[in-house]
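Inverse folding, one chain.
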């Protein structure tokens, strides 16, 4: 009888749904940031008086006002995916190396000019969607034995801040090496404090024998790093959805990929076809990735010929029309 009375009290005090979870509404018009409840089932939490006490304390500490239209709109836009109405077009490389991609071959201003011109070509094929520019920066470079060389913080910060000023996204890409994917991801996470920063991991280089064998991650590891990234975003009140790119051009690079999840609320997994070849070979590689329908957000990478001895490149380079004609159409397109 006592337990029934307690449950009735909880039911009428808390309504049909009780929660200890909250969603951040950013500060608007001088108001401090506030929290709104996210519902979860009343039972079985109602059986525990500690849960009721936590709900009461949370409610007592929260100021009560209805969200304005501006607040509601701002909250919705913070959760909206940038991929909803845009394609992303990026230049890839290491700012301090001419041999690792286009980023190291020109100044930031010249790269922005060239990328803008290329974006205009893609815009004409985008069926009304926008084209968002990006710098795709190699963060950790694999060395012999699988050790990793990390880009200097001052260099990366300079590029991120330039990109912020010019409405350019930044992907920071880690080659993993001999370490666990989680280790590499945690090195990247602090850079998410910048709202234009997204992350990438390259399984090709998850190996102790770079240039001798193709590296690998498992589908379970892909889910694990997504979960860590989402938890970090939530714990640090970082805004918006962030992308996590995983590269693949060979079956070995992501094993057991059918178990990969893409239903994380704050992390948008991007599955990137990252292979060198002629257009026929590249279409075949992309078609292999397209078979993984559990990873629907696809990406496509192209390689310029900078006449670097021993370096691979696409011959001939596919045109923007060729790229936008891929099925499914890639959301993220990058040039190395």
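Residues assigned per position:
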């Amino acid at each position: 009888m006592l337990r029934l009375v307690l449950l009735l009290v909880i039911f009428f005090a808390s309504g049909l749904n009780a929660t200890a979870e909250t969603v951040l509404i950013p500060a608007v018009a001088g108001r401090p940031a506030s929290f709104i409840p996210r519902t979860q089932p009343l039972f079985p939490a109602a059986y525990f008086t500690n849960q009721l006490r936590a709900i009461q304390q949370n409610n007592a500490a929260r100021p009560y006002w209805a969200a304005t239209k501006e607040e509601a709109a701002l909250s919705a836009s913070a959760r909206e995916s940038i991929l909803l109405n845009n394609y992303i077009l990026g230049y890839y490389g290491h700012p301090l190396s001419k041999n690792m991609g286009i980023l190291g071959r020109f100044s930031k201003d010249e790269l922005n000019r060239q990328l803008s011109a290329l974006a205009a070509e893609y815009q004409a094929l985008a069926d009304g969607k926008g084209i968002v520019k990006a710098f795709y920066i190699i963060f950790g470079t694999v060395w012999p034995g699988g050790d990793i060389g990390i880009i200097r913080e001052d260099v990366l910060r300079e590029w991120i801040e330039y990109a912020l000023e010019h409405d350019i996204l930044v992907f920071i890409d880690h080659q993993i090496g001999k370490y666990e994917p989680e280790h590499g991801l945690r090195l990247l996470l602090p850079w998410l404090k910048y709202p234009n920063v997204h992350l990438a991991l390259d399984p090709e280089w998850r190996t102790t024998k770079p240039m001798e064998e193709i590296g690998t991650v498992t589908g379970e590891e892909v889910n694990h790093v997504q979960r860590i990234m989402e938890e970090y975003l939530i714990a640090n009140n970082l805004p918006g959805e962030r992308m996590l790119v995983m590269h693949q051009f060979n079956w070995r690079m992501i094993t057991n990929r059918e178990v990969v999840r893409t239903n994380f609320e704050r992390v948008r997994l991007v599955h990137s076809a990252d292979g060198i070849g002629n257009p026929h070979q590249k279409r075949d590689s992309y078609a292999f990735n397209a078979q993984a329908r559990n990873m629907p957000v696809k990406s496509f990478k192209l390689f310029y010929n900078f006449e670097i001895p021993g370096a691979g490149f696409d011959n001939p380079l596919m045109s923007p029309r060729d790229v936008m004609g891929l099925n499914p159409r890639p959301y993220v397109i990058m040039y190395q």
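The chain has a mean pLDDT of 84. The two ends are 71 Å apart (CA to CA).
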